[in-house]
Amino acid sequence: MQSLIDQNDAVFLGTHVTLHSYPLVCRPNCIPYLINLFGSGHRVKGEFYSVSTRGLGRLDELEGTALGHYEWLPIQTQVEAEAEAYYAHRSFREELWEKNGREGLSEYTEREASGFVRREDRLKDRSFVDEDRPKELFSLLML
């Protein structure tokens, strides 16, 4: 996000909490996934950004939306604003929630982020749903 901010493709608008409860889990490589299972998990605290069209394209590439890792869906926060968030793709969300023992986080903190494995350091032969790593990004993005 800092790169997008530096290039005027994103503006940090603050920290917000979801209006409703959602699971937030971190499984493989300590990558966080917000799961679109309304009413499960916790109200989640996350960062709120305004992002340019160019910035959104870069985020979609990073988040693997074309590969089916995440999908954009609306989200409501305590602050009234039209917003969307990256959610774990529907094709594996239930499995991800189950593999995490139906336990989620209320926010992604530096403690959880410390276990994040960079893309180039990840094992290539493992499914990102099957890999077991410690728990942990959730950003709310406003268009």
UniProtKB/TrEMBL annotation:
Molecular function via GO: acyltransferase activity; gamma-glutamylaminecyclotransferase activity
Domain Gamma-glutamylcyclotransferase AIG2-like: 12-90
A matching Pfam family: GGACT
InterPro entries (alphabetical): AIG2-like_dom (IPR009288), GGACT (IPR039126), GGCT-like (IPR013024), GGCT-like_sf (IPR036568)
One Gene Ontology term, aspect cellular component: cytosol
Family annotation (SUPFAM superfamilies): Gamma-glutamyl cyclotransferase-like
Active-site residues from the entry: E63
Record keywords, A-Z: Acyltransferase, Transferase
Function (record text): Putative gamma-glutamylcyclotransferase.
Family affiliation: Belongs to the gamma-glutamylcyclotransferase family.
Protein name: Gamma-glutamylcyclotransferase family protein
Source organism per UniProt: Quercus suber
